Amino acid sequence: MPRILMTRPVSIPDSLKLTRYSKLPELGPRVLFFSGGSALNGLSRTLKRYTHNSIHLVSAFDSGGSSAVLREAFDMPAVGDLRSRLMALADETVLGHPEIVRLFSYRLPKDDDDASLNKQLERLAQGKDPLVRRIPNPMRSLICNHLGYFQQAMPHDFDLRGASIGNLILTGGYLNNNRSLDPIIFLFSQLVNVRGTVRAITGDERQLMARLQDGTRVVGQHLLTGKEVAPISSPVQRLKLVHSQQEPKPEGSKLRKANRKLLASAELICYPPGSFYSSLMANLLVDGVGSSVADNPCPKVYIPNLGSDPEQFGMTPQQQVEALLHYLQADQEDPVAVSRLLNIVLLDSRFLNDVDADFKARLAELDIQLIDMDLTDPHQPEQYDNEKLVSALLSMT
């Protein structure tokens, strides 16, 4: 069957299209996001009012906070960002299950002693805690089963302080399903009526390693973000996946067939705001991602960060675009046209430095269209307004 590529003008925002999507979000467009972290959660809550078909491929390489405790104990991918995206996309209407969302969002106290924390975990696993008792069966039994499985597998010295119950439930399900993330993510997507599709970009246990321009080697996502340690003081020169923090030898990961199909089905692919390397670029390190992007003829849009991202130390918007294209091209057997990887840069130049004549000329040379428009929150001008951003993206579909 012949495939025909057609182009057409669009209006941004397209009020008629947005009205149609808001009335029938179950028929909304399949917009795919490469992401991780919490930067896209607010946008996801807005997005689900217009489409229930968005796709979120989430990096699972987080190595800080409570995710680090779970990864060290069970040698597994990080589940925290997956949990938070599931909750952001959960159905918040009367048809949803807010009691499950509350449970998944609950964290054990940081200041309680080990005995108290273990007792509370036991009450939760037995269904005796009020947070669990409110959940009707059979969902309550499923949750208690996975939480009980986690409790049995938990090392005796496991640190429960500040632990996310949602993360513990997902970990129990992961261990109980032959160390596979997809079944447990699918199960809880159904339980809370997730308005979209959330998947880990890979189920393999990997860590991020960055080589900085000054020669420093940084192993571990949490050492890049500037949240738990001092920000990096030299630009990132190269990013790759490695076996572990203790054994940082390069080790790749292949895109699964199910995720290839999701990429092939997308009507628009978005490289969204968020931590540039640990959230966005990390997804592109998985073998098969770049080639799958190139094979899909849909529009591809990059949205640069507003404000300061510690991972983008010393980077201009032009360098960000060049880095994005570099990692996408690295997956190709032979170089492909830029138009198959990136078509549009969407931004608000009032709050971005270096959106100058040289940058615009370089985009024109690469045949990438620049859309510069009002996208910011009037009350927080260095942040994107989720409504404006969603309206712009959906108008392109």
Automatic annotation (TrEMBL):
Pfam family, one: CofD
A GO term for molecular function: LPPG:FO 2-phospho-L-lactate transferase activity
Residue spans crossing the bilayer: none
Protein name per the record: CofD-related protein, GAK system
Species this protein is from: Marinobacterium stanieri
CDD domains linked to this entry: YvcK_like
Family annotation (InterPro entries): CofD, CofD-like_dom_sf, CofD-rel_GAK
